[in-house]
Amino acid sequence: ARTIRREDYRPPAWFVPEVHLDFQLGAEQTVVKSRLDVRRSKSAKYQEPLILDGDDLLPVSVRVDGESWTDWTLVEGALHLPLTGASHIVEITVEIDPSTNTQLMGLYASGGMLCTQCEAQGFRRITFFPDRPDILSRYTVRMEGSKADYPVLLCNGDKTDAGDADGGRHWAEWVDPWPKPSYLFALVAGDLVANNDSFTTRSGKEVELNIWVRDGDLPRTGHAMKALKDSMRWDEQVYGREYDLQLFNIVAVSDFNMGAMENKGLNIFNSRYILADPEVATDADFDGIEGVVAHEYFHNWSGNRVTCRDWFQLSLKEGFTVFRDQSFSADMGSQALKRIEDVRILRAAQFPEDAGPLAHPIRPESYQEISNFYTATVYNKGAEVIRMMHSLMGADRFRKGTDLYFDRHDGEAATCEDFVVAMEDGGDADLRQFRSWYETPGTPKVSARLSHDPQSGTATLNLSQQVARTGEKPEPSQMVIPLRTALLDPDSGEHEGEELLVLDKPEQSFQFEGQTEHPILSINRGFSAPIIMESSQTPEELAFLSTHDDDPFARFEAMQQLMTNYLTARVTGTPADRDIVLQAVGAALSDESIDRAFLAELILLPSEAFLGDQMVVVDPEAIHEAREKLRGKIAVQFERKFRRLYAQCTPGEFSLSAEARANRKLRNVCLAYIAGSQADDAAALASDQFADADNMTAKQGALSVLSHMEDKDRGWAFDDFYNTYRDNALVLDKWFTLQSLSQRGDTVKRVKALAGHPDFTMSNPNRVRALYGSFTANPVRFHDASGEGYRLIADMVIHLDAQNPQTAARFIPPLGRWRRYERGRAELMRTALEKIAATPDLSKDVMEQVSKSLA
Ligand code: B3K
Ligand code: ZN
């Protein structure tokens, strides 16, 4: 496959200021007629032909300036027209078949409706077009279809006209006044009903809001609607950004490759990020909906009004928008809990990516298939980079910078460099050296050593940074690393204020006067930089921080580090002090001042995957054993405490208040610990919680605990769950997920059996992720020493690739980390990758990931 390079960017030779589209819709055949107003770029030096991208398209007819035109060629799917004038009208007709579009890119059918997904390169599967984000066009769309099958016809912008047509058909015309790149085009036709509401912007404009779903789902749209209105208000207040159309539509779709899509005025969502009520959605599901609705809404400015010049700039819109949605969710809920969650995601998904064969900078230098670059690096590390700018500049200057960015580039396709320059100009900042974050892959490591001189009362903090060497650059860059730091009094835990230390050299030291005693170092508070901190803190110091640090993230982090150090020592057979871990957990459990949700986070053990990432050679079984042993010990030691807390967290009337949610969260954590103590009544306790639950958080928590138990304990609950929710696809996904995550020895077998279950289907990405995605997130079973788990995933990828390459390619990274595992597993993982690589007709998507993983 061809490699596309960032340095090869050339401005377009032709622009398309106006697009008219006419859709004659049908599930098996849709006729698309386009009328493009094309203008040759004044800066184009040569008489370049007009090249219109196409994927799987054949022109039925081509006309230029009103005349039939046969002088065209198809080159790798693209239509080449040797036009000589400065501007032309090009009219093309194509026919497409949405019903056979299993890739879910372009126009496809889902549950009786027709819908689109165009980012990044789906529009070229609908019509011939220069499908690149620096071509901004005004769209006028007429769509016509069966009134019975598609009573609702939606597109971007505002509806300008509608009417009936012959043969039981009807039509609608939509005009989007905002010029947009083709990847933001969207169309939906279906039998849908709306939760209809409105929002008045701060300048007094009324916006109609609709969330479109299938008939029975209407009662589950309230939370998404609230999230939408909250987002609209927040973006006005925090970024000064107002909505810019009279209508905002959201449609929920069951078959969707990703979470959601920010199409102008017509967001299309995976239904799992819209539909919720307490019976079917967990608290985490509610949060996911709030975050994704906000994310897509915020794209209206960071992505749509200012878009990306080319796909190498993807983090321009994604990193920034993730930072915006993270800040929003923190403001709606708890700053501390949100930060813990964000960092957990970063460490679970991004750090491993950055340490493996698929590592890339947040602004990649090259790609073969752009779909493979919608990664945790571009999104989540991208968000961390924006967050660091926010920390370095402070909220006010940061806002001045973003104001200038939106103002200066409104209506343009911009670059990451444009963003940084606007932040410098608007926010009066010098970000010259900071730019290395955009080009450097790998997680920087920082080591910190604090020494103390009692004579002079001076504490000295020696910091150094190490950035991984990459093939691309001979000299690794020095990063600008903002570290929120405090020195705590070793007795009281108090400090005289936090400082923002900026490490921007290979080595640097900082002095602190007036320190009569050796202080305790609290560094990278709030996870102010996305780095790996290598500090030589003793277990005593970590335990101290886990009880005394006033920064909640730092407190959580100290406990995690304490547990991690102990567990990694156990795995490698090094002696380690368990009592101090138990004491720290005990102290947390008896600290009456801690919020219950925070306590639930504090006493959670680091995940097996995270522990593996800390080790040079990963042995999943040894990690699992060590962790289970510590879990059991904590459970037994504090069993009475867990039982008391469990009883105290008994739910009252269901509510989404912070307090009620905290109770549900801590109650589930306690239940899991009680089960970990091997208590005789654990199964009964979990079964009772399962049977009595009036909400999915409690039900799923109980079922998760039961999922690891024997059939006599768990069987009835899984059956009951299935029978109750078999008609609700999103809940049934949980039924598959929990079985795939079971630690039982027969899980691989079970997953294989479930693949043959009548409710399993490879054509629904949510279902595929529920069964197989969850399985790859179950380290001890996916990494079964027999290699059965690897073969299962490899065979599934080969099968899925023929149908849906984008989703198939997402399963390569878990196998791609083979070099980190002990010899036997590494060999089996590599063999699985080789089997995939040897399959004929692999997609570009899977091929790129597999070949990079084997290289
Ligand atoms: N921008 C979309 C991503 C779609 C990618 C498809 N390969 C979702 C989002 O980040 O908001
Ligand atoms: Zn996004």
Automatic annotation (TrEMBL):
Entry annotated with the keyword Protease: yes
InterPro entries: Aminopeptidase_N-like_N, Aminopeptidase_N-like_N_sf, PepN_Ig-like_sf, Peptidase_M1, Peptidase_M1_dom, Peptidase_M1_pepN, Peptidase_M1_pepN_C, Peptidase_M1_pepN_C_sf
Residue intervals of the Peptidase M1 membrane alanine aminopeptidase domain: 224-436
Entry cofactors: Zn(2+)
Keyword Protease (UniProt): yes
Gene3D superfamilies: 2.60.40.1840, 3.30.2010.30, Neutral Protease Domain 2, Peptidase M1, alanyl aminopeptidase, C-terminal domain, tricorn interacting facor f3 domain
Domain Aminopeptidase N-like N-terminal: 87-184
Gene Ontology MF terms: alanyl aminopeptidase activity; metallopeptidase activity; zinc ion binding
Keywords: Aminopeptidase, Hydrolase, Metal-binding, Metalloprotease, Protease, Zinc
Reaction catalysis annotation: Release of an N-terminal amino acid, Xaa-|-Yaa- from a peptide, amide or arylamide. Xaa is preferably Ala, but may be most amino acids including Pro (slow action). When a terminal hydrophobic residue is followed by a prolyl residue, the two may be released as an intact Xaa-Pro dipeptide
Entry's Gene Ontology BP terms: proteolysis
CDD domains assigned to the protein according to its UniProt record, in alphabetical order: M1_APN
EC number(s) stated in the UniProt entry for this protein: 3.4.11.2
Xref: SUPFAM superfamilies: Leukotriene A4 hydrolase N-terminal domain (SSF63737), Metalloproteases ('zincins'), catalytic domain (SSF55486)
Record-annotated Peptidase M1 alanyl aminopeptidase C-terminal domain positions: 540-855
Peptidase M1 alanyl aminopeptidase Ig-like fold domain sequence ranges: 442-535
Pfam families: DUF3458, DUF3458_C, Peptidase_M1, Peptidase_M1_N
Superkingdom of source: Bacteria
Entry's family note: Belongs to the peptidase M1 family.
Name this protein carries in UniProt: Aminopeptidase N
